[in-house]
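dumping the sequnces here before i forget
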Amino acid sequence: MSRPFPADEPFLNGNYAPWPMEGEIRDLVVEGEIPREIEGSYYRNGPNPQYPPRGRYHWFDGDGMIHAFRIRDGRASYRNRWVRTARFQLERAAGEALFGGLADFGNSDPRVGANMTSPNAANTNIVWHAGRLLALWEAGPTHALDPRTLETVGPYDFGGKLAGPMTAHPKLDPESGEMLCFGYSPLPPFLRYHVVSKDGRLVRTEEIEVPVPTMMHDFIVTRDHVIFMVCPAVFRLENLEKGLPVINWEPELGTRIGVMPRAGGSRDVVWFEADPCYVFHPMNAWSEAGRVVADVCRYPRVPLMGDSAEQGMQDLSARLTRWTLDLASGTLKEEALDDASSEFPRLDERHAGLAYRHGYAAGALPRDQERAGFDSILHYDLEKGTRRAHRVGPQDAVGEPIFVPRTPDAAEGDGFLLALVYRGAEQRSELLILDAQHVEGAPLARVCLPHRIPFGFHGNWAQGV
Ligand SMILES: [Fe+2]
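..and the predicted 3d for all of it:
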């Protein structure tokens, strides 16, 4: 008989607890009406451990599970499947967890089996590019999936061309159709930049020199520049022997922001100094008249890692912040755009890397009682400087909002927001469909599941798929 999941791990309980089933629902109950313009698939990835952990559990460790909603003619179907990684298959054959995770780096207990090469969990993001659906995890190659059945085709490294790991946050260039990526590593080379052509070929790799290896979760690409955020969450492999966290917060190093011309290489990077901070996710950035403007969700220190790991969700409070990087003077201006806590920032992706007006995020607005998770879907009008919110109930929580344009050539921000919401009282989840221009209004549609989808990370829309 298999062991139960531990009751004392915060990221294995409540709506963080894994959902143990794979299945399919052909015609979901819809309250309201799904706009007929919406035709395609929404895919969402997140950690969903198959077996109870051997040691401690970190939210970033769980096996990736994909939840997919296919929408057409005002109707929606659902399917979920784990990504069949090597780890998933080895553990399924064994009937138990075999590997330690992030929380056990440096743990010498052989029963935990901790090692520096924790196998690919494929649990962080999922993107559709050049006819391929790729599940992503930032410390390894991608996994290709069948877009209809979600069956795992297998690990995918661009025909052997991907050197090192690949970020879970590639950027799709709306003008060129390219997919821009990077990979970071605790071992040299610490940072690489990659370009994948519109037709899916990895055509360029540049090694980028950085002073120390850091955990670099995301980056930004504009029409003219690539921006690397070297926040002081530093890999210290020597900490392994001392039983200390491998990712060490070193604020004295400050944050360094590297701006590289798209056509350039490591020697062309212009570095800017900023106060120590951590950024998991940028909203967007653009280049104009000798400067780069970048909007990011900024933490004063790295959450969830190292000394911050024990604080869990309580520590997850980033603020939307604008950096203006002046390339001529080498100076950086930093200003908070909002005082509310926000994460999972997104935009109308047709403006990725370009000047833009509308941004979206999951947010936590001040509320009387303490609660975990995000209670609002936020819409920022960055031109007007306003923020609107779609707030859910006190026991509910929302995930990352995804923008779907009404039509391919609709104006920026004219479209829909898709977001998962967990209804705590009923312990089930829904796909909310909001009018992106009136997020505070009643949802256009609530696509209802009879079960819950655990809190996860990122998703994307695949038009017409
Ligand atoms: Fe992320």
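The pocket of fe (ii) ion is lined by residues 124, 168-169, 217-218, 280-281, 457-458 (CB under 6 Å).
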